[in-house]
Amino acid sequence: MYYIKKVSAILVTLALLLGIFSLPTSSYASTNEESNQSLEPIDPSQVTYESNKNLSDEQVSDRFQEINSKYDIEEPFSAEDAEFIRAYASSPTDSTD
């Protein structure tokens, strides 16, 4: 009888640990699928939000600073900010040394 209780306690503990450690993985996966946005570059002439149209170099720089301070790491961008980044960010391979 003691043996059955001991084995049952171990099995219950293992089941609880398995449940606890598997939750963050499935939760993270569903969050990523929901917030998956394309950050493929677009031409600035293709922007649709008024706040992203016809910006000077200074306005672009200011907007990048604003966006940089507005979001935490891994926080998804708003559609408007994502469009701005797609239109005005250059890839590391675009820079000349």
Q: How many H/I helices? A: 3
H-E order: HHH
Overall geometry comes to: rod-shaped
Oligomer type = single chain
Query: How many angstroms separate the termini?
Result: 76 Å
Provide an overview of this structure.
It contains three helices and no strands. About 5% of the residues have low confidence. By secondary structure, the chain is mainly alpha-helical. The termini are far apart. The protein is rod-shaped and about 80 Å long. The longest helix has 33 residues. The protein folds into two domains: 36 residues; 51 residues, no CATH class. The relative contact order is 0.12. Keywords: Signal.
Outline:
Helix content is 59%, strand content 0%.
Features:
single chain; 97 residues; mainly alpha; 3 helices; 59% helix
Topology:
Elements: H1 2-34, H2 57-70, H3 79-88
